[in-house]
Write a structure and sequence with these properties.
By secondary structure, the protein is mainly α. It has 5 domains: 15-112, Homeodomain-like (Arc Repressor Mutant, subunit A, Orthogonal Bundle); 155-223; 233-279; 287-374, no CATH class; 403-470, no CATH class. The protein contains 16 helices and 10 strands. It has a 3-stranded antiparallel sheet, with no helix packed on it. A hairpin with a 2-residue loop joins β4 (49-52) and β5 (55-56). GO terms for molecular function: chromatin binding; transcription coactivator activity; zinc ion binding. It holds the Pfam family Myb_DNA-binding. InterPro entries: ADA2-like_ZZ, Ada2/TADA2, Homeodomain-like_sf, Myb_dom, SANT/Myb, SANT_dom, TADA2A_B-like_dom, WH-like_DNA-bd_sf.
């Protein structure tokens, strides 16, 4: 301490402290010139020890003042404020006297101070306590602590009242300036280096603030709402939003949403254009035919998966496709049903067995074999063009799983060839690239004959509206 008038050191002598002026100390000689209307305090010499022989009372006061001013942990500043003690001594003394003991937050008492607090106990005190126990006053029960509510803090670590995250972005940014001090003895190069470090620290703080403002502006703390919106999107939308998320910081929320919606619209249009091109390559011109095509495409895919499952089950290989257990069961059931139907037809019709296959070649043997090979007949009841077909033609289309519009196109082609050439043989039909070769097995459906042997010579003759088969 120094006198504010004569600047004399008065640290170890009694001094006068003005109670109204801030940090105003006077020596005994300079006390009278000060304002006589102010209150004052007489401060005696406090160099005597209290808790430790090496620490006086004045140093204890300075230590507590320095911690209150500079904060706990800034021991270089505390040491400079106390004077005569290094940072390690200040830290060790503070923790030993004020922290590391059972009477915290009170200071650790010395043995002499502990003796002063002891009271003389009356020899009859225990007897009086047993005879006249003190009244028991129940304390009001404390309210039970509520369990912590699950909110945005659990997932994001955001403190709404402090407007901070725990931990913050770039949480170690303060480490570069934690021990920095500007001293009057620093040379210009050191001062310039410290200023550059402060500029870097400010840039990191600006980036932290920018990210915090971005999160609060976009309402990214409401994780439940974000998850609900994410669940309503399909896989393509979720993937696109995840890939475009890195560009959200370069534009506003509305602009980013418009950009992503535009990209999604472009992806949908490209997908639709690819579907329409596929329809055109397959000769489809109406949406009704497109629906039929999609249904047939899905059926063929399911049939291919079932065939793979059946083949794997026969060869003892595991099936890795969807519904592996159900696929094996369906394949086994279909094979058993086909075998039972073939056996029943053979027993009822007494037909001959085809060598090497065990399939009867009676009246219905060939149809049963082909039906077992091709699966369930196609339902063409509501398909376009079915009203133009006869009963036998409908049976043919259903058995061959042929669309009525395709059958009518093939029929028109055959009628035109018959009109042009007069007659078409079976060899001409089988050699046509537009007519499926399997139609030659179903010639009975186009002729009055119940069954036409495969070795017979068939000639297709043209009539007004029908094709007749003669052998």
């Amino acid at each position: 301490y120094h006198c504010n008038y004569c600047q004399k050191d008065i640290s170890h002598v009694p001094r006068i402290k003005c109670a109204e002026c801030k940090d105003f100390d006077l020596c005994l000689e300079c006390f009278s010139p000060h304002k006589n209307t102010h209150d004052y305090q007489v401060v005696e010499n406090l160099s005597f020890p209290i808790y430790h022989p090496d620490w006086g009372a004045d140093e204890e006061i300075l230590l507590l003042e320095a911690i209150d001013i500079y904060g706990l942990g800034n021991w270089p500043g505390v040491s400079e404020h106390v004077g005569g003690k290094n940072p390690a001594q200040c830290r060790q003394h503070y923790f030993a006297v004020y922290i590391d003991h059972d009477m915290m937050p009170l200071p650790r008492p010395t043995p002499e101070m502990a003796q002063l607090h002891k009271k003389e106990v009356c020899p009859w005190q225990s007897l009086l306590t047993r005879i006249f126990p003190p009244p028991h006053i129940p304390f009001p029960s404390a309210r039970p602590l509520l369990p912590p509510r699950g909110g945005s803090y659990d997932a994001t670590g955001f403190h709404p009242k402090r407007m901070e995250f725990d931990p913050e972005y770039d949480n170690d940014a303060e480490c570069i300036v934690a021990d920095m001090e500007f001293s009057e003895y620093d040379n210009p190069a050191d001062v310039q280096l410290k200023l550059q470090m402060l500029m870097l620290y400010n840039r990191r703080l600006d980036e932290r603030e920018r990210r915090r403002a971005f999160v609060l502006e976009r309402s990214l703390l409401n994780t439940r709402a974000a998850q609900a919106v994410e669940r309503r999107r399909n896989t393509q939308e979720r993937d696109l939003y995840a890939r475009m998320r890195v560009f959200a910081r370069y534009q506003s929320q509305s602009s980013h949403d418009e950009l992503v919606e535009g990209l999604l619209l472009e992806a949908r249009m490209r997908t639709r254009i690819a579907e329409l091109r596929e329809y055109r390559r397959n000769g489809i011109r109406t949406f009704v035919d497109a629906e039929v095509y999609d249904t047939e495409k899905r059926r063929q895919k399911a049939a291919a998966d079932a065939a793979v499952a059946a083949a794997n089950a026969v060869h003892g290989q595991p099936y890795s496709g969807p519904g592996r257990g159900a696929g094996k069961a369906r394949a086994a059931a279909a094979a058993a049903a086909a075998a039972a139907a073939a056996a029943a037809a053979a027993a009822a019709g007494g037909g001959m067995m085809q060598p090497g296959y065990g399939t009867p070649l009676g009246d219905d043997g060939l149809q049963l074999a082909l039906a077992a090979k091709r699966g369930v007949p196609l339902d063409i009841t509501c398909m376009p063009g079915v009203e133009l077909l006869g009963s036998r033609e409908r049976e043919l289309c259903a058995a061959q799983r042929l669309l009525p519009c395709h059958y009518l196109a093939l029929k028109d082609m055959l009628l035109r060839d018959c009109e042009k050439n007069g007659a078409i043989t079976k060899a001409d039909v089988s050699g046509s690239p537009f007519l499926p070769s399997s139609l030659s097995h179903f010639s009975p459906l186009l002729s009055p004959s119940p069954f036409l042997p495969p070795s017979s010579v068939c000639v297709w003759r043209y009539s007004t509206r029908h094709i007749y088969v003669v052998g």
